[in-house]
Specification:
The chain is of the alpha+beta class. Helices cover about 50% and strands about 25% of the residues. A hairpin with a 2-residue loop joins strand 1 and strand 2.
Length: about 80
């Protein structure tokens, strides 16, 4: 795991309690070409506010702490990575 991967996981660990309190969770997948790939789980996966949570919450937190990350993308089981 690279240093950037570790830093992303640390930020996600700070966010995770808020997601869990709403019945969701988040899994780190990978970092590639400035994009952090995550998988939202539980209630988050089917929530109508998933894009808001991802872009206005998770992405802002990660980009603010890790300048190498320019975007956060949620993957689903149908995506090939």
């Amino acid at each position: 795991m690279s240093e950037i991967d570790k830093r992303i996981v640390e930020v996600l660990d700070k966010i995770r309690p808020f997601l869990i309190s709403d019945g969701g969770d988040i899994e780190y997948v990978k970092f590639e070409d400035g994009i952090a790939y995550v998988k939202l789980l539980g209630q988050c996966a089917g929530c109508t506010l998933i894009d808001t949570t991802l872009k206005d919450g998770i992405e802002v937190a990660i980009v603010n702490e890790i300048p190498e990350v320019v975007e956060v993308v949620n993957i689903n089981d149908d995506m090939d990575l």
